[in-house]
Amino acid sequence: MATTEHPLDRLPDELLLSIASHLPPAEALAFSLTNERHNRIAGESLRWRKRCLSGWRYGRAPRYRPTLVKNFPLVEPWRQLFETRQATDKKAEAIFDDLLQSQQGRIRKMEEIAALGYDVKDLLVRWQDETPDDADDVLARRFYASAILDLIHRTIAIDIWTRLAKHDLKIKLTEALGAYDLFVLNGKWGDIEDIHEELDKIADDIPGYCGLLEWKVYDKKERALKIAHFLRERNMLGNPDGTAYHDLRNNFLSMALFAPPHTSLPLQSVALYCAVAQRHNINAQPSNYPGHVYAVVDGPWDSPDDDGYIDLADDIPLRSSGSAHTTGQRIYLDPFNSAYEVAAIHLARGLQDRRLPAGQVAALMGPTSVAEATRRAGRNILRSAQSAFHEDGGPLAYETATYVGLWNAVLLGDGQVRTRENALEQSRLYAAPLLERLLRHFPQEIGLAEKLYASLFPRGDEGSSNQEPHPMDPSEEIAAFRVADDQPRTPKTRPTADDGSDIIKYRVGQYFEHKRYQYEGIVTGWDETCKMPEAWIQQMRVDDLEDGRNQPFYHIIDTHRNARYVAQENILPLTEEPTGDLITKIAGRYFKRWDSEACVFVSNLKEEYPED
């Protein structure tokens, strides 16, 4: 039986290649499957590379980052990569749709998506930022996409600090400090790779700023000073207007690099300066000086033989340079305040006035370690978090800042302990408030807590005598949380009075104001009567209420993400549509969207409250 030739088959390869290159990715893939010739033409690496780079920005490998694609040309199996990424996205979409539909196993499903890592980051960013306002599940889709992004980023950050705690010398300063940014990133521009690329660009601009001929003849000391002038002239260091010194934003490298007005604390200013200087083969490191951070810049100051630029993926490791100090080839800079050299004698006298021993003065005048600089940043964040206590929502809000500071304190300690046993006990002390915040605000990160507590509270081998749990070990609480997540929800039927009226006046999703304390909140559940322990009832003076303990009580979440338990008589329904973080950061955990006609949030807890 004769086969009929398709008109396309009469075209030369060049025209078929042009046609295939203009097809959308899915259609190009279908075209490649029609026959052997089309498969060969559509499989052209250049075309599939273009589709990969236009379809995804992030990935486990750097091949998806356009700025690095020059290192991954035609030899890469671009078509295979495209098909793999499509399959990964499809898998993540199926799990995501399932978790939106059912309360059962939501945290486990979030972990399954997060385990795919940066290969699903593009998809999650799209759901978080581009879900239409009129989508049926807009709030839930945005919330859970954002929460999974947080889990991906924070897993990376905790791995960095865990390796740093184990004295991994490959961890660089911008990586260790950039881990803080991963806790507040939410898919925005400014992860560790973005920070490195931006520092590379800044370093590239400096020779042109100074004049290429002049730059070639500068010795390293002159270059160190010119770099400080460049960064301060571009307003990339310090806090120029001198206000809001302890603002949370000043603690994060990505804020200093990408978010005007580019303000930072001294440690972050020095870290950015050192990272740029190191890219020009200058040994610049943050100081160990108390009270303020300086840049310690060590010689020798000979003019370099090459162009003086090192194309680094990151800054070089911090290292001690005692020989430079003894030969006088060390200078100090304060890039937070100026671009000029600080007199070493002035700094030394400041320490000597404290009557410190000579050995301690020398140590404090020298460079710090990556671990100690990271601890110092953590302490600054906790200090800034206190001043931000009353800030509303936001990615740099009090609870998130306290949470990231606690993670760092648990993993790295305060650097003062002398034995492993003391370090372990110190970490255990920080671990209790960490778990409390995790379960209250970030329950999807329970897997991170499981790994942490397994290391803090080892049980010993099966059958050994060391099976007794530590009194601070929360493993049973975590296990119970896991079981509860995977259990089907028991439906609660709304009770009615003898006359057929509703005993429970308000439904899940009711937006309200507390009559007595005037805070706003949303109902997330209810009980027919007060179900709290007697001690709580007495402490809260429930029996002093007009209807006492035998009225309905409501589980609610307030605008500061606090879970509360409120008596029915204190609920004052609100009808206006709420705005800001109440919707984007809170409501999506429990609700699909806001219903403007009914003036309530549409419940996403139907398995537990099917009639609400």
Automatic annotation (TrEMBL):
F-box domain span: 5-51
Entries under InterPro entries matching the protein: F-box-like_dom_sf, F-box_dom, Hemimethylated_DNA-bd_dom, Hemimethylated_DNA-bd_sf, SirB1_N
SUPFAM superfamilies in the record: F-box domain, YccV-like
Gene3D superfamilies named among the record's database cross-references: 1.20.1280.50, Hemimethylated DNA-binding domain
Annotated region described as Disordered, given as residue ranges: 481-500
NCBIfam families, alphabetized: yccV
Protein name: F-box domain-containing protein
Organism: Apiospora hydei
